[in-house]
């Protein structure tokens, strides 16, 4: 993209990555492959330590990670964890930095985080991502961004490294977070739809592979249907997106919908399924473990 008159041509920035879980570590590695210097921090230091082998500087504190960085990328669990990370990093944050806030936190928390960031100095970009573990590791996420156009040039090297596509939504923070909730509504209802189809096939004595074969290649088939079903049938529920995180996002969607006067029956049902599966011990597994919420009570243990 041609740089704007208010921002210089993109350079390779120094990026502090706060949060190196499944998504954050993949994004950090994508930045490193692009030749960008990365300083990584995680509240549990052991989760950040492996990134040293990939070339990242692993910081002991959030303040050390952000001090002197051009861009600060936050990929944590929720609004409170982002707020806590900003508080921990406050001594190293300053005017001239860009905060690329990629955790899904919902519109209310976005407004509060933008206010807090303005007090600390950096420019806040509301930048949630669409994608799971593999796209994060491959630099193939879709990033929704809302924030001042004047800092696009500074953010673009980072966005280009972590994502296949960047969608600039608006200049006002919050617009990207609202779009992310709409996208997640589609994903959440789809994954529960897949789980229920597998549940019903099992209950009716239909081989689920026959169902998948019938769907394959037709207008209603998707790679998501085939991939998530294969995970259930193989028993490989290693998380590309954890069920507990999906439940957190589902609750954010419902909160936003209620505030907007919108009733979402399917999302409410999805929240109930996720909660049952989490209670049965599947919170750390991939979100397709919602499948277990539809099995007989004596089978929900996995």
Provide a descriptive summary of the structure in words.
The chain is an alpha/beta fold and 302 residues long. It has 2 domains: 14-172, NAD(P)-binding Rossmann-like Domain (Rossmann fold), CATH 3.40.50; 179-299, Orthogonal Bundle (N-(1-d-carboxylethyl)-l-norvaline Dehydrogenase, domain 2). 50% of the residues lie in helices and 13% in strands. The protein is built from 12 helices and 9 strands. Helix 2 links the parallel strand 2 and strand 3 (57-58). The longest helix has 30 residues, at 175-204. The protein is globular. Residues 1-5 have low confidence and may be disordered.
Oligomer: single chain
Proportion of residues in β-strands: 5-15%
Walk across the major sheet and give the strand order. Answer: 3-2-1-4-5-6
Which architecture of the largest domain does the CATH hierarchy give at level 2?
Answer: 3-Layer(aba) Sandwich
Order of helices and strands: EHEHEHEHEHEEHEHEHHHHH
Annotation, overall tally of beta strands: 9
By helix and strand content, what is the structural category?
alpha/beta
Structural shape: globular
Please give the alpha-carbon distance between the first and last residues. Answer: 49 Å
Rg over C-alpha atoms, rounded to the nearest angstrom: 20 Å
Largest sheet: 6 strands, parallel
Average predicted confidence as pLDDT: 94
Separate helix tally: 12
Classify the fold: give the CATH topology of the largest domain.
Answer: Rossmann fold
């Amino acid at each position: 993209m041609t740089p704007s008159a208010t921002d210089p041509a993109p350079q390779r920035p120094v990026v502090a990555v706060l949060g190196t879980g499944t998504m954050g570590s993949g994004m950090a590695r994508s930045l490193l492959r692009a030749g960008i210097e990365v300083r990584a921090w995680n509240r549990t230091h052991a989760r950040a330590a492996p990134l040293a082998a990939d070339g990242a500087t692993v910081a002991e504190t959030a303040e050390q990670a952000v001090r002197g960085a051009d861009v600060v990328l936050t990929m944590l669990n929720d609004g409170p964890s982002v707020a806590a990370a900003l508080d921990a990093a406050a001594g190293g944050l300053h005017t001239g930095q860009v905060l690329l806030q990629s955790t899904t936190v919902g519109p209310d928390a976005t407004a509060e985080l933008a206010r807090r960031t303005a007090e600390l100095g950096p420019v806040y970009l509301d930048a949630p991502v669409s994608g799971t573990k593999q796209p994060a590791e491959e630099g193939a996420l879709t990033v929704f961004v809302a924030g001042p156009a004047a800092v696009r040039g500074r953010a673009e090297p980072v966005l280009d490294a972590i994502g296949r596509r960047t969608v600039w939504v608006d200049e006002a923070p919050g617009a990207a977070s609202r779009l992310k909730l709409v996208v997640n509504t589609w994903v959440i209802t789809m994954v529960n739809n897949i789980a229920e189809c597998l549940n019903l096939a099992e209950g009716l004595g239909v081989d689920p592979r026959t169902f998948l074969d019938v769907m394959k290649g037709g207008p209603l088939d998707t790679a998501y249907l085939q991939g998530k079903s294969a995970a259930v049938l193989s028993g490989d529920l290693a998380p590309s997106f954890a069920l507990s995180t999906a439940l957190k996002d589902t609750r954010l969607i419902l909160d936003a919908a209620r505030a907007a006067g919108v009733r979402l029956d399917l999302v409410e049902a999805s929240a109930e399924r996720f909660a049952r599966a989490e209670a049965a011990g599947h919170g750390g597994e991939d979100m397709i473990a919602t499948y277990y919420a539809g099995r007989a009570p004596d089978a929900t243990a996995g």
